Amino acid sequence: MSAVLSLHAYVERYLTERRGLGFGLRSPAYALRSFARHVQSIGHRGPLTVEVMADWARRDSHGSSDPHTWARRLKQLRPFMRWLQQFEPRTEVPDDAIFGRLPERQAPHIYSESEIVDLLAAARQLGPAPGLRGIIFETLFGLVASTGLRISEALALRIEDVDLTRGMLTIHQTKFGKSRQVPMHPTTIETLRRYRLTRELSGESVQEDAPFFVGTRGQRRGLPLGERQVHRVFKGLRENLNWRNRGTHHAPRIHDLRHTFVVHRIMRWHTQGVDIDQAMLSLSTYVGHAMVTNTYWYLSAVPELMGLAAERFESFMPQVEVPDA
To answer: Any idea which residues carry the catalytic annotation?
Structure first.
């Protein structure tokens, strides 16, 4: 690494350029800054090598011993290292040979209706009472489950983005730098209306630019609810509910509520006799997928939909008569 710019400076420059192109970089930014701190802490000098990167990848904050976890961490560095080569040509770029090739996209946990009901009921009981904390988390998880929003999109909502008269959410600058509007079911609108009234009666700001979901504790009180805090709360609820994991991730996740929304919608269309191919583009737009192929992925990767995909495949196959033996 040259003395012209430190690794920390290169990381920030890279993140600024990528954000300017509309990329959301929450996870990569965390990984790259962590890697820069690691390089500094070990006193590394000279070109960045795959050995240094692999050493960092193994130091997962959860102490994981799974090579797939290390491979995912290493993958976060790859685009940055390619970018860095224009300034530091001797920079190495890690490949799949270090920890092995990652498996294909992992199958999500698809929640049953009873699991979602239990989650919302458990969130409602969060204390202290009286207070907003329970209804905030109940409403947040319910909104994700009923609209398929990303958790980051739900937490970024402001008062002005939630139009309860038109029944419309406005999602700004999503994962791929686009904005979209999300119509809501009448039951969702009514739930948000009750939440907003409770929120206002508690004395929280009603300014148009105020966060819709607010923190209720310590220095975060009145500020946008933090994503790390939400994941901690969800983890506690999940452990208490003791669900049986039906996905291939380490445990059911908040993001699986989004997957569940998509799967349930496709299954409902199938039951209603809707032409799924005709409806897929609208679903892809609704949930904010960059490409409709991301939505079609569910047909081949989620057990609940694989039978449906097989039926679609069979409908295209010619019926061949088998002669009697």
So the answer is: 150, 175, 255, 258, 289, 298
